[in-house]
Design brief:
The complex is a heterodimer of chains A (380) and B (86). Chain A is of the alpha/beta class. Chain A is 42% helix and 13% strand. Chain A has twelve helices and twelve strands. In chain A, helix 1 packs antiparallel against helix 7, helix 3 (69-83) packs parallel to helix 4 (99-110) and helix 9 (300-309) packs across helix 12. Chain A is globular. Chain B has 86 residues and is an alpha+beta fold. Classes of the chains: A alpha/beta (380), B alpha+beta (86).
């Protein structure tokens, strides 16, 4: 089996799973209970939170645990806009966001919020001049992903954050889901940020919303204090401890892992681009872990299943499409319908071997050839 | 003229188009625009044979479908259809 869908989710690290199991067995108390079993659980959460904060260079009071990035994005966007709506109802975002960004923004639009999309350049990077042009007195939120999940475009989050410092009424949210654990990031100028443990070899069902101390949000879930007042519910002690473990483990070798994936990615891009009518949509400014490519004349879903038959797992992307027919992100980047309707995503990890990559290259060539031949025969 | 609009909350292309459609609604108050959510109004949406791409705008004149715009469109493209059939 060759797994090349690490941007969808990652396999859990055994050591993370061990932490989860051990904590579930040994920390049975509700962290909100006053007895010593509860205090033990609370202390473990506090230690985990401190560890996460230290790794990311933030304050531990800024961490809100959620069920994952979707909840973190919803909490950030709805929470900040509803809290500060008396200041304004204008939101700015990009064409490269995840559906869990568009969802809450669409919801807010039904409540009278207005949305603008900032222009991006030929690399998919936010046009900072256009951002400045769009910013208004009533702009309350700018939400821009750190890394686009389909193509891997790395947005200039630090520069955007610096620009927004001149707009004290406007908050800056960034979806970090695809960057945490892959590349270090400076969060100094970000007000709100979301990520999920299962993207860096942690468990599904736990994520974080980072919320800078100075700001308030309306919670999505009401019901009393948990680890914070911003997200009620009994704290998931074992999931929180496992997230801290996953983050610590992935940060131990983050730079070396990045460089390894970069070399693997460069090699794979060169080899894939040698295939007839295959175009690499991810450019040099993208995160090397994500390679988006278009295979002209082959339906993405058909190619996905052909590779699946070879026990190779990749993905297609479906933003704005009710199935896998078209990628809005690829169209936004390339303005090319043929590329948008034939794109697939291959996502790499430091766990990916050169042997796996070579087998993938060999198999995808065969699959493409077979499928094109089949299409030709069907057309005859 | 009547327009059936099919959007989804998760769809960025739909979100982009909201501003344009809001302007059109204001500029053409006589046009009846009925909006359905692709996921929430499944029963209604099924009637319109919607394909793979959202948003979808279906234009009716005298209860007969006369045009269909699929995906993100410029305001001018929408106005062209409206002015042709209104």
């Amino acid at each position: 089996m060759i797994y090349l869908d690490y941007s969808a989710t990652t396999p859990v690290d055994d050591r993370v799973l061990d932490t989860f199991v051990n904590v579930n067995k040994n920390y049975i108390g509700n962290p909100n209970s006053l007895h010593k079993l509860g205090v033990n659980s609370k202390n473990l959460i506090d230690a985990s939170t401190k560890q996460i904060a230290n790794i990311l260079g933030i304050n531990e009071k800024e961490i809100i645990y959620t069920s994952g990035s979707t909840e973190a994005n919803n909490t950030a966007i709805k929470g900040i806009c509803l809290k500060y709506q008396n200041r304004g109802k204008h939101i700015i975002t990009t064409n490269f966001e995840h559906s869990s960004i568009y969802g809450p923004i669409s919801y807010l639009e039904t409540l009278g919020f207005e949305v603008d999309f900032v222009k991006t350049n030929e690399f998919g990077l936010v046009d900072l001049d256009d951002l400045k042009r769009l910013l208004r007195d009533d702009t309350i939120l700018v939400s821009i992903t750190a890394v686009n999940s389909e193509i891997g475009i790395i947005e200039p989050i630090e520069e955007i954050g610096k620009i927004l410092k001149d707009y004290p009424k406007c908050f800056f949210h960034s979806d970090l889901t695809q960057i945490i654990g892959k590349k270090k990031i400076n969060l100094e100028n970000v007000d709100l940020a979301s990520f999920s443990a299962h993207k860096f070899y942690g468990l599904k069902g736990i994520g974080v919303l980072i919320k800078k101390e100075k700001i308030n949000i309306n919670p999505l879930l009401h019901g009393g204090k948990s680890t914070t007042i911003y997200r009620s519910g009994t704290p998931a002690v074992a999931l929180i401890a496992s997230l801290a473990k996953a983050l610590r483990l992935i940060y131990e070798d983050i730079d070396n892992n990045y460089n390894y994936v970069l070399s693997l990615s460069n090699y794979l891009k060169v080899e894939l681009s040698k295939i007839d009518k295959v175009f690499i949509n991810s450019n040099d400014k993208c995160l090397p872990h994500i390679i988006n490519l278009s295979v002209i004349g082959v339906k993405p879903e058909t190619l996905l299943h052909a590779l699946e038959n070879e026990e190779i797992y990749i993905s297609t992307q479906t933003a704005c499409s009710t199935n896998t027919s078209s990628s809005r992100a690829v169209y936004s980047l390339t303005n090319d319908h043929a590329l948008a309707t034939t794109s697939i995503r291959v996502s790499l990890s430091h766990l990916t071997t050169l042997e796996e990559v070579n087998t993938f290259i060999e198999k995808i060539k065969i699959c493409i050839e077979k499928l094109r031949l089949k299409n030709e025969n069907n057309n005859d | 003229m009547k327009i059936i609009m099919i959007n989804a909350m998760w769809c960025g292309g739909c979100l982009v188009m909201h501003k344009v459609w809001k302007q059109i609604e204001e500029e053409y108050p006589s046009i009846e625009i009925i909006k359905y959510d692709y996921d929430m109004d499944e029963e209604e949406v099924q009637k319109y044979n919607v394909g793979n791409l959202l948003p979808v705008a279906i234009f009716y004149k005298d209860n007969k479908e006369v045009a269909r715009l699929i995906g993100e469109k410029k305001k001018e493209e929408i106005l062209k259809v409206i002015n042709e059939w209104k």
